[in-house]
Amino acid sequence: MQINVFAQIHLIYRLLPLLQKTAQENMTPTRIVMQSSDLHRALPSTGIDFASVDEINTDIGPSYLYNRSKLAMILFMRKFERLRQVGELGFTPSNNEVYGNCSHPGGVATDQQKQAEDAYGVMGVIAHNMVRPFMKDPIDEGCRPALFLATSEEVIKDNVRGGYCVPDKKITEPSSQATDLELGERFYKLAMDILKSKVDTKYAWVK
Q: In 47-101, which residue ranges form alpha helices assigned H by DSSP?
């Protein structure tokens, strides 16, 4: 959660004034893309509440820990879009400066699969060896959803904001947890509380 989510939220909010300024000066919207994963769908339907720091620090197993961080990315980006719509975060009345979305790269052959070996031992080694031949090349294929969100004019033309893109360049609905407004609000409050307690959160848009 620290690397995949909280650090990225902090970076996005520190860069947000520059992203907005660049969009206004160039009269071209800027983009934010968070690399989520369809593994967010594999979380249990209960027990993921984002209710406290203790919950975040509870070991729920390596797979669920990863999946939960990917769910949190989608929840954040959807909340980011809701804030944009109501003129928060320092957006101008046009509300047109920044497009924020999440992507899923598909099964990609990266070093990440090695983590399964570290987490699960022999079974992880076996699973890694079984699935690796079916993994996509990260350069030829794995980057395509993120590149689509970052560069395609279709994103602006179709007003894709707070969206979720899967291979290949398909905007789709994430899980029911990812679209749960109450869960999204709880996660956002928890994330901001954690950032306020751990880092300098004097973001330019905070009054």
A: 53-56, 62-85
